[in-house]
From TrEMBL:
<feature type="active site">
    <location>
        <position position="117"/>
    </location>
</feature>
<dbReference type="Pfam" id="PF01118">
    <property type="entry name" value="Semialdhyde_dh"/>
</dbReference>
<dbReference type="InterPro" id="IPR058924">
    <property type="entry name" value="AGPR_dimerisation_dom"/>
</dbReference>
<dbReference type="GO" id="GO:0051287">
    <property type="term" value="F:NAD binding"/>
</dbReference>
<keyword id="KW-0963">Cytoplasm</keyword>
<dbReference type="InterPro" id="IPR010136">
    <property type="entry name" value="AGPR_type-2"/>
</dbReference>
<protein>
    <recommendedName>
        <fullName>N-acetyl-gamma-glutamyl-phosphate reductase</fullName>
        <ecNumber>1.2.1.38</ecNumber>
    </recommendedName>
</protein>
<keyword id="KW-0055">Arginine biosynthesis</keyword>
<comment type="function">
    <text>Catalyzes the NADPH-dependent reduction of N-acetyl-5-glutamyl phosphate to yield N-acetyl-L-glutamate 5-semialdehyde.</text>
</comment>
<keyword id="KW-0521">NADP</keyword>
<keyword id="KW-0560">Oxidoreductase</keyword>
<dbReference type="GO" id="GO:0005737">
    <property type="term" value="C:cytoplasm"/>
</dbReference>
<dbReference type="GO" id="GO:0003942">
    <property type="term" value="F:N-acetyl-gamma-glutamyl-phosphate reductase activity"/>
</dbReference>
<dbReference type="InterPro" id="IPR000534">
    <property type="entry name" value="Semialdehyde_DH_NAD-bd"/>
</dbReference>
<dbReference type="GO" id="GO:0006526">
    <property type="term" value="P:L-arginine biosynthetic process"/>
</dbReference>
<comment type="similarity">
    <text>Belongs to the NAGSA dehydrogenase family. Type 2 subfamily.</text>
</comment>
<dbReference type="Pfam" id="PF22698">
    <property type="entry name" value="Semialdhyde_dhC_1"/>
</dbReference>
Amino acid sequence: MSPPVVFIDGDQGTTGLLIQERLRSRTDIRVTTLAGAERKDLRRRAEFINACDIAILCLPDAAAREAVAAIVNPAVRVIDASSAHRTHPDWIYGFPEMAPGQAERIASARRVTNPGCYPTGALGLLGPLVQAGLIPRDYPISIHAVSGYSGRGRAGVEEYEGAGAANAPLYQVYGLKLAHKHAPEIQQHAGLAQRPIFVPAYGAFRQGIVLTVPLAVRLLAPGVGGAALHALLAGHYADATHVRVLPLHESSAVEHLDPQVLNGTNDMHLSVFHNGDDGQVLLTAVFDNLGKGASGAAVQNLNLMLASQ
């Protein structure tokens, strides 16, 4: 039997290139891509996508929708790394550790939408706590995250590594209109009653993310503090391969968080920091925006889907 064909559409972007790198040595699949001159040829794209077993879309949102619309072969399965389908009810959300049974749902799905990089950290923290009722659904959530510049794709890499790199800012906060496209995704999949305030930023490093969510204990469910939040997260991820919740004794000794510490991996570290005297808690996530936040997540979902072929 010939190996399954995996078509990477948009293979020259930061996410697509890293997916190719991670799949290059695999012998259990055959990877196909479009030649450079064919990347904007809709007819050739349709031919390739309809001839594959699983398509991985690393495209802008509009192009991802066009690619899906071109599928006429009912056997083709899709992993979409864009944000085009992340809140669509007919697509399975590709965060295997998010909820019990989610990995199984991904494995059997025809259409899987990869999480955004920032939502991976936000939902990794908030999802279990909101679903368990420790954080009220109407809590006024605020999220701050700093990503490496590769989170902007090729434009970010060019700004920081191209001819004008000397003039690139060391740090830049964006999304100041408070209408970032990740906010509805976080709200929906965390089960929040209202849209969170999401403030993202880029730093002058290539990849890696630190994401933080501050909480006031007085606004949480009665009796809930840092220890209870930590216990719930630790229990939820106890058997997870790629998500680790730092024990409280380890996080209590942490003085700073390095966004780059997990670069090159598909892992994510979650921590709970708390000040019992002042009733304050800080939830944190550290991971690689191109690993667990993009390419690594796509490959993780691909492996689940291949196992069910």
